Amino acid sequence: MFQHLKNIVTHTHQPDEAILDLLTNTTIGTNGAKYQHLHTVSKIHKLVNPHYITVRRNKKAIGNMTVCERPILVQNQKVNSLYIRYFAFKTFFQSSGKQNKNKRKSIFETYLKELFNTSNLDVYKPEYNPSVYWAFIDPQNNKSWNMADRFGLETIGHFSTYAFSRFYPKKNKNVSPIKPAEKESVWQNIQEFYKDYTNVSKTHLFEDDNYFVYRENEKIVAGIQVFDIHWRIDAMPGKKGKFLVNVLPHIPFLRRIINPKNYRFLGAEGLFWESGHQSKIELLLEAVLAEKKRHSMLLWFDDSDDKLIGLFESMKSGIMQKIKSDNSIEIVAKFNDFDEVLKQKMIASKKYISGFDTT
Known about the structure:
By secondary structure, the protein is α+β, with helices and mostly antiparallel strands. It has helices at about 15-25, 40-45, 105-115, 140-150, 185-195, 240-245, 250-255, 280-290, 305-315, 320-325, 340-350, and strands at about 10, 35, 50-55, 60-75, 75-90, 130-135, 155-165, 175, 195-200, 210-215, 220-235, 265-275, 295-300, 330-335, 350. Strands 1, 2, 3, 4, 5, 6, 7, 8, 10, 11, 12, 13 and 14 form a 13-stranded mixed β-sheet that branches.
């Protein structure tokens, strides 16, 4: 059925120049927030087990869906999953919901629908083992919602962004990068901390030696993974968003926290602390900003996560949290012949949100 698409739709495991050109020039968002990832070229090569499903025309990529094979923990039970990292199309799926009657477009939609039914991302030699695809979608992004609706992804959760910032972050002698010999024991601590969560992943933890820990009497009592992120923000929703994009860049002192046209910040995940050491987190985050020479850090928490949200709200998080726009993001998934008990756990559990994935 799809034989004539073989020269139009390619399935590769490495991003070529055409894919990089498409993804680096893609503006994310339709209504509300609009921004561009300026770090795509360096970050895309850090993806683990990626599949690049690419639509090509005249040697150019006009559409790409990147799916990463990823083992995750569902309440500490290992599950193989398929994470949709990129979904960027110049001409497909950009309507508000009405399907174009163009034949090629219809065939391509059929191709993707069948792809989402497989467990091996191969419509020519498909396997139909139990599988779960999942992704993050901004409710204000019409293009992404169109994709989710057409291909049968359902909402399984929500999360929001939290900002930590300091004009003059201070170093702390108790904070330092993790040592190689400590990684396994810290991973065990993280698993225990998130034992009631789903989507917990080690995939991007300890990356680039950017996992920092807080030590008390030589014992690790807290830790966090950070990533160097570079964005250009063109628009943000609401009055706060307009202030952030249009006014803040002209205020030198505030621009230290965020320059929308050249926003360099830290994304984070893998935050944990030992019982009784919650007070160390504020010191840890500030010290990491100082070590990385940044002024703001973004973290993402499940909207039902009283533990992490409660801690954050008890801290002095800084001005960025006060001026940023609030926008809850949807977590969507498609389950194929998936174990019903595991499915319900994934839906009901708090979600671990990776700062690598959200940026």
